[in-house]
């Protein structure tokens, strides 16, 4: 059975802190790992990772995939209150099916 | 251009009634996904359409759920004889074929009383 597990489930930090969100997966016919930010209903795309060891960066956010150990991390540096959201990771399979984790709820306090 | 749209944004229904949820994907996107998100849960994959191919229905939780996509564009998710456990936000997403990024609609919040 396919599994995508995110940790921690929730996290409370103060502005300026750095956070690391974890995503581990056990998915057959894995193709790529995606990260989304969900503030209200609709998630917004952050990163797509296909190759191991290549860091993707966008501003204060970065992510990397380890296909040997089957996990990915999402780093956010110098957090801001606007970073408060649920962060979802998803494993995409060869047939384009997606399996999402339960998400990490990040709260950034001023 | 316009993003993915869904209607209605909210739907309250009584147990046992049928409901239809609509998704208008981004024009030109051949792939369309339906997901369900229950309170505090991650996204649960329901069904995937790619072009004119037969849909991947592997995620549908029961035979009360069905979906169709007419003309390779608009999709309707139908839930028959709704149950209280069907209450959730139903999200639709579309993408271009061969691309990983999905664009999500605003969702339909379904409440079954």
Write the layout of secondary structure elements.
The complex is a heterodimer of chains A (110) and B (113).
Chain A (H helix, E strand, L loop, with lengths): L2 E5 L2 E5 L4 E8 L3 E9 L5 E6 L6 E3 L2 E6 L4 E6 L8 E9 L4 E3 L3 E6 L1
Parallel strand pairs in A: 2-11
Antiparallel strand pairs in A: 1-3, 3-8, 4-5, 4-9, 6-7, 7-8, 9-10, 9-11
Chain B lengths: L4 E3 L2 E4 L5 E6 L6 E7 L6 E7 L14 E5 L5 E5 L8 E8 L7 E2 L3 E5 L1
Parallel strand pairs in B: 2-10
Antiparallel strand pairs in B: 1-3, 3-7, 4-5, 4-8, 6-7, 8-9, 8-10
Verbal overview:
The complex is a heterodimer of chains A (110) and B (113). Chain A is an all-beta fold. Chain A is built from no helices and 11 strands. In chain A, a hairpin with a 4-residue loop joins β7 and β8 (71-76). The radius of gyration of chain A is 13 Å and the shape is globular. In chain A, 33% of the residues are buried. The model of chain A has no long low-confidence stretch (mean pLDDT 92). With 113 residues, chain B is an all-beta fold. Chain B is 0% helix and 46% strand. Chain B is built from no helices and 10 strands. Chain B has strands spanning 5-7, 10-13, 19-24, 31-37, 44-50, 65-69, 75-79, 88-95, 103-104, 108-112. In chain B, β4 (31-37) and β5 (44-50) form a beta hairpin. The mean pLDDT of chain B is 88. The A-B interface holds A 4, 6, 32, 34, 41-45, 48, 50, 88, 90, 92, 95-103 and B 31, 33, 35, 40-45, 48, 50, 56, 58-59, 89, 91, 100-107, 109.
């Amino acid at each position: 059975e396919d599994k995508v597990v995110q940790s921690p489930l929730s996290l409370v930090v103060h502005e300026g802190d750095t956070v690391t969100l974890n995503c581990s997966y056990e998915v057959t016919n894995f193709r790529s790992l995606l990260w989304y930010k969900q503030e209200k209903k609709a998630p917004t795309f952050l990163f797509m990772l296909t190759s191991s060891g290549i860091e993707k960066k966008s501003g204060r956010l970065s992510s990397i995939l380890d296909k040997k150990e089957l996990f990915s991390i999402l780093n956010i540096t110098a957090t801001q209150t606007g970073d408060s959201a649920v962060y979802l990771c998803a494993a995409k399979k060869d047939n384009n099916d997606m399996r999402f984790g339960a998400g990490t709820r990040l709260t950034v306090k001023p | 251009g316009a993003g993915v749209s869904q209607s209605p944004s909210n739907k309250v229904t009584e147990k046992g009634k049928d409901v239809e949820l609509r998704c208008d994907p981004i024009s030109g996107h051949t792939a369309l996904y339906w997901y369900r998100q229950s309170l505090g849960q991650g996204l649960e994959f329901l069904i995937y359409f790619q072009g004119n191919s037969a849909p991947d229905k592997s995620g549908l939780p029961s035979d009360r759920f069905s979906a169709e996509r007419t003309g390779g564009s608009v999709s309707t998710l139908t839930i028959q004889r709704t149950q209280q456990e069907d209450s959730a936000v139903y999200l639709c997403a579309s993408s271009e074929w061969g691309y990983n990024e999905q664009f999500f609609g605003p969702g339909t919040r379904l409440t079954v009383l």
